[in-house]
Amino acid sequence: MTDGPTSTARRESLATLLGGRRGALDASLPPVGFVAGWLAADSIAWGAAAALVVGLAIGSLRVARGGRPRAVLVSLGTVAVAALLALYTGRPEDFFLPQLLSNVASALAWAVSIVIRWPLLGVVVGLVLGQRTRWRADPDLLRAYSRASWVWVFGQYVLRVAVFGVLWAAGDVVALSAARIVLSWPLVLATLVVSGWVLYRCLPGDHPGLRHPRDPAGTVARAEGDSEAGSGPEPKRE
Hints:
Layout: H1 4-10, H2 14-18, H3 21-41, H4 44-64, H5 69-89, H6 97-115, H7 120-128, H8 139-170, H9 173-182, H10 185-202, H11 219-230
């Protein structure tokens, strides 16, 4: 006797749904170029130029392979901001300051989303699966997404803030570059695996899975019905 499609849906991993390894790996290469250029020439300007060249090469490769130009431009813009900041302050460790601040902002955003019952993990997965916000009508999914989102808060963003913050304060540029690699796609993959385990662990055994949110109160169906009724022709008045 087979498990059937419902059991298969329950076991679908977040890593499969969300991916992210390629993007995280790409993001870790420009900082390596910055440190290499800075060490080779003992110049922040050379480091900044090397980071931009690496970022441009990666972006060109991604576009050639069918990547979205907008995403490539955003990535290049991030590298440019980091390079300009380091040039402005004259401190090579400040190249990593935007990364530190972005992780502070991400940790706060994810924590707030859980508190207000809009866990960002659910928002992201819901968009990927084309569910919009239907998952919020399922109390089991809402609770599971909330608990799994805490893994992202502490297991990824707070951890990065702690490591990057200490190394940035110490001005250890080489260690910052190494940490950027270690805390990029390996950490993203680990977070996906652990948060996925927590997510499925929190769901009841008879739950149909992420792709099939329950709606015990029928709120979604009623809302859709009211919308369709409201869009129909107005009744004739006698």
